[in-house]
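== Polypeptide entry ==
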Amino acid sequence: MTGRSGDGSGALPPLRWLSNADVVAAMPALEERLRLAELTMTALARPGAAELPPKIAIHPRPEASFVHAMPSHLRGDTPAGDLVGMKWVAGYATNTALGLPGIHATVIVNDSQTGIPTAILDGGPITAERTAAVSGVGLRFFGPAAAGRRVDVAMIGAGVQGRSHLPVFAGLLPGARLRIFDRSPDRAAALASEARAIPGIAAAEVAGSAREAVAGAEVVFSAASFGPAEERQTMTNDWLREDATVIPIDYATYCAAEVARDAALFVVDQREQYLANRDAGNFDGYPDPMATIGEAILAGTRRPEGRVVVTHLGVGLADLVFADAIVRSAVAAGLGTILPR
């Protein structure tokens, strides 16, 4: 819990604004981000440890736009250790043509015992890094054994999420060789150039198609922009190695239902959110998950022989857990702007 005044005077605690630059400056290092993501996933699997309803969504014009409210609560060891907050995120695919980012997010942190807002954060960097960290947890527990050898990684999508995943691949799959596909070859080339400069990534090249990128890859990551329904689920079993670890963060944009149905292990970040999205038509033909990521971790599930699919839709609890850590770091470093109430 961050930001309580705690003096019994009735005075409101400070309200701190953290800009994009503040959030980036206060972002935890990779290993801590992975720990926070694992904490989030396992909390969701423990009865009573967290409260997280499926995303509350509206769908304004233009077409394919969305705005999500993502409230969450993490129960601490004591009431003072609880976390309460919400992420408010808007996605407008048409922003690209305007030269604007497609996703805009804000995270609000509340005092857990009074409900008073204590921090407002630019959610863009949090969204990017918590998503990559959850992918990293999936890789760490259910990905290929990478010690002492190079792993071929396919990346579909070279946007913000592609960039945020580079340190995860470098850190968990040292010596990784990347093949990157994006609908914009220039964007793919820019990400490949950036990847080659990161220690831990042995090589990065641009693929001419998504299937070319995926061919022979042990790890397949997809973060493509959502498209028309008729263009979804194009990545079928015949694209993939039998032992591939597939990490789609773009719902069913590329990964076909048969890949999840035939997987030796199919896990999601939160069952209720996944099932609500399947009911809404975002995962047509997909099976029930075998477990959540957290359930599989707590059960000691080992990577099985065969294909593994780790689907995560993004949970607001991860944003809140990251925001709490960022606010603590920002307060210690004197970052942010205190807003008048």
Remarks:
- The chain has a mean pLDDT of 94.
- The longest strand covers residues 66-74.
- The two ends are 20 Å apart (CA to CA).
- The chain has two domains: 15-126+317-339, 145-314.
